[in-house]
Amino acid sequence: MSIGALTKMFPPELVDQVVDTTGTREVRRRLLPARLVVYFVLALWLFRGGRGQPSDLRVVSIDAR
Q1: Are 15 and 36 in contact (CB under 8 A)?
Q2: Is the pTM higher than 0.70?
Q3: Which end of the chain has fewer CB atoms at under 10 Å, N or C?
Q4: For residue 56, what are the contacts with CB-CB under 8 A and spacing of at least 6?
Q5: Rg of the chain, C-alpha, whole Å
Q6: Cβ count within 10 A of residue 6
């Protein structure tokens, strides 16, 4: 799993729309912009099993269709 796979499932435009809708956009430029934080949290969720394998990739890819 790479960041490229996450951006295919969750396009940057969609992530930006969600960040704007929830009102969680950063006020000033930070080292980790809101979009990157979203991808980081998604990666943490996918790899939470600790085996280095995406535990719920099948569910995410089905929901992304």
Answers
A1: no
A2: no
A3: C
A4: 45, 46
A5: 13
A6: 18
